[in-house]
Predict the 3D structure of the following.
Amino acid sequence: MVPTEYYVLLSTVLFTIGVIGVLTRRSALVVFMSVELMLNSANLALVAFSRQWNHVDGQILTFFVITVAAAEVAVGLALLVGIFRTRRTTNVDEVNTMRG
Amino acid sequence: MEETLFTLIPAIIVLPLLGALINTFLIRDGRRAGMVASLACGAAFVVGLAAFALLAGLPHEEQTHIDLTLWQWIDAGPLDVPFGFLFDPLSAVMVLLITGVGSLIHVFSIGYMAHDARPVRYFVYLNLFVAAMLILVLANNYLLLFLGWEGVGLCSYLLIGHSFERKEARYASMKAFVMNRIGDFGLMLALLALFQHFGSLNYGVIFPRAAELAGQQINWVLGPTALASAIAFCMLIGVSGKSAQIPLWTWLPDAMAGPTPASALIHAATMVTSGVYLIVRSHSIFLQTQAISNLTVYVGVATAFVAASIAIGQYDIKRVLAFSTVSQLGFMVAAAGMGAYTAAIFHLLTHGVFKALLFLGAGSVIHGAHDVQDMRRMGGLRSAMPTTFLTYMAGTLALSGIPIWAGFFSKDEIIGSAFHGTRFGTYPVSGTILIITAALTAFYMARQVSLVFLGQQRDTSYHAHESEPIMTIPLWILAVGSTIAGIINFPGLHFLDHFLEPVFEVGHAVQEPLEFNIPLAIITVVLALAAGWVAYQVYGKRQWKKTFRDPLARYLGVFFEGFEQRWYADDVYDTMVVRPFKATASFLSRILDPLGIDGLVNGAAWLVGFGGRGLRRAQTGYVRSYTLVFFLGVIAVLGYFGFATVR
């Protein structure tokens, strides 16, 4: 059996990649994908710990995370489409109406 | 019988109030409003007369016990104030004066106000005025009295400022109100002190225990003082405000800026008498303090003399009468201070009648002379206005103290009390000054009659006419009243003395009815006649040119200038109070408000704006930088918790 540490390590790596993606990429779509990556890294960790402790809670929580992620993607993509329609771009740096 | 009284007493107050309400909401026509108002006041008089008759029929000792509580007005912890009325002989005679003279003034006003711009409003105020005054005299506790006290203050303000298009009317109304408020403040202090000591403001609680006040010492402005003196002094401030005594007297002469019948109401039947009434009502308290009672006498005597001297130098027909009122109020206050309470009330009643007559007569003159008020432009009006002249003479003789007319008896009773002595002793100096003042009174009244009615008309640019019957009939009634009113306390009969006795028994203030002092009477009458004769010689005999210069100015020089300029009292107040006040107000509005207050407010706004301008740089608008901050925050929080758990 693969030890839990490996899963946690992989989860950490995935999460870090997600963070770096969110922080560095300018395309809103890629930022989204990075966010999904972070969510899924969390899912991976949850499932791994669930198996480790023979506890089903982690797996249940994963379903919640997946549901929330789906809803978030629906809203987020709708926003993205809206932004693209008005500004003809999905570059997050150019969407700076809120600049003080 | 008492049950009948209990239904009659509220009706006395409700009727004028009802008149005011009907006129406010239902009547638009001035003449009809006058009818309603007169009817309301007249009905109150009839009811008052009936109540008076019932009261007079009661046994002597029950006459002070007609105490009727309508409802609980204020019930807040220890403060327990009923909305209740006390109908004792003192209130009864006041009610008769207020409603009786008031009704005649209402009727007179119908004619006088026929061409006014706002007659309905005027009659509403008039009725309210009467109602407030009735509350004042009928109250069975000091707080309800204070309600009426404030009510007459308010109504006088409204009436004086009735023709608010004129600047001096607006100014006079404000002056009256402010002066009265100063006095009211004194009365309020007195009420607070009374409440603190007795835990109640009801006459029934305070007066029987008034003797306690003399023993109590309090630390006051000038060291320890008897509580009775402190309270009486505060009341005296209130009295000097309402009854126009030194130092708060300057509002009353200006109060004639209102319509003339309203002046008659303010000067004769209501308002100014309330101060005298307050002293007489609170006699139990004033009797505990010789010092303040003496002070009251001195204030009254000084006011009487100063105001009489000023009346000599005035040219406005109403202004002479206004200063005469101040002077006569001085007589009453002096009498009340001496402890000659019956004499004070006697003079209050007779003065109420003949001063109303004089003011209405002056109103009739002004009405007939097309709003001319300057006596220098009058003269010879006797032939144009015979009725007004005849009735005016009755008032003049009454005010001057010529025998058989009312003023003679009441004024002589006051002067007699000063010499004969009361429980506080005799007041020979004050009495002498009062005799001189009485002579001055005869002088300025004879001067006025000479200038207005005798000789030839000096300014012939207008055509004077006699007033209509609705105005002359009240004059006739009042003229008859001024002639025979002396009967109510005729020497030897002493009706008023006996009638008021139960009131003064409570405070053990009963005075032996004064015997008629014949030498004194001869002196006062001779002096009055002489003064009148001199005035007639100076003013009545000669033919004045149009450019009238008062002949006294030549003989008296600087003194006459003092009379004419009212001893510069208004100028002194103007320099000492009004101008500094205006300067302060101007400083506040021009400097402190824009720089100080606005500076503070705008400064706060600027500070917030400045902070915002600085902090807005943080809002870059780059989502990624927000995210970075967010992550760093998460790390910081996690690090903090991790660190905390490890430790």
Notes: The radius of gyration of chain B is 30 Å. The mean pLDDT of chain B is 84.
